[in-house]
Amino acid sequence: MEGFQERIIAEKDQLDERTNKLDAFVDTESFGKLPQAQQALLKVQLHSMKAYSECLSQRLGLLQ
Q: Residue-wise over 2-41: b if at least 16 C-beta within 10 A, else e?
């Protein structure tokens, strides 16, 4: 199961990196210039990414 756990860790690391980039983008002027619908969808996406990361964290916790 060690390989399985390593894949979850790698997936979470990649997800967290992308989440951090999107989180930073939301605070930029460029984000504010996007149409409202795009802004709303990106915020939903960010929220979903954070929830997915938490799910992966919990799964890893159960494996330990």
A: eeeeeeeeeebeeebeebeebeeeeeeeeeeeeeeeeeee
Helices (H) and strands (E) in the chain, counts: 3, 0
Q: Smallest Cα–Cα separation from 13: which of 60, 46, 53?
A: 53
For the chain, the domains span: 2-63
pLDDT, tens only, 5-64: 999 999 999 999 999 999 999 999 999 999 999 999 999 999 999 999 999 999 999 988
Task: Tell me if residue 27 falls in helix, strand or coil.
Answer: coil
